[in-house]
Amino acid sequence: MSSEQLSSVEEIDLAAARRIAAEHRAKGSSLVTVLQDVQTEYGYLSREVLEVVAEQMQVPLSQAYGLATFYTSFSLQPRGRYHISVCMGTACHVRGAANVLGKLERDLGIKAGQTTADLKHSLESVNCLGACAAGPIVVINGVQHGKVDSRKVNEILRELD
Ligand code: FES
């Protein structure tokens, strides 16, 4: 890809962030809401995108960064097409969440907090998701899976192929 092509891709990307932020600004939405929608669009919050959001929402870049790093639902790094969250809260932990996370790490060849080189999977450990009775809980792109064990990890990964 030439540098000209790269810059036009960048323009398209930033245009989407500009549009989303402008729409929310007109509605008086909160900065968190804007960041959520922008992350849905891009999969993560790059520095360039945060700069556009801060400019459009007329807030300091540090404020946008502050929110993006405070909430664990935001990511400053590219995520995989399938973003996998494993609950490591106490209830899930005593039901074997560490084994589930370990198996996912082995099967995907990445550690929690990392993304596969092909950007297909990213993996993270999270705190209690509020569904303790059904633990261990694994959430993939917002879809919750309960009572996950090694066998169920195999099934889940097969479904993602
Ligand atoms: S500890 Fe996992 S959902 Fe509560």
Describe this structure in words.
The protein has 161 residues and is an alpha+beta fold. The chain has two domains: 3-70, no CATH class; 82-160, 3-Layer(aba) Sandwich (Glutaredoxin), CATH 3.40.30. The chain is built from seven helices and four strands, in the order H-H-H-H-E-H-H-E-E-E-H. It has helices at 3-27, 31-42, 47-57, 61-70, 90-94, 97-108, 150-160; strands at residues 82-87, 121-126, 138-140, 143-145. It has a four-stranded mixed beta sheet with strand order 2-1-3-4, with helices on one face. The protein is elongated and about 50 Å long. The two termini are 28 Å apart. Mean pLDDT is 89; it is low at 1-12. The structure holds FE2/S2 (inorganic) cluster. FE2/S2 (inorganic) cluster binds at residues 87, 89-92, 128-132, 135, 137. The site of FE2/S2 (inorganic) cluster has 12 residues, from helix 5.
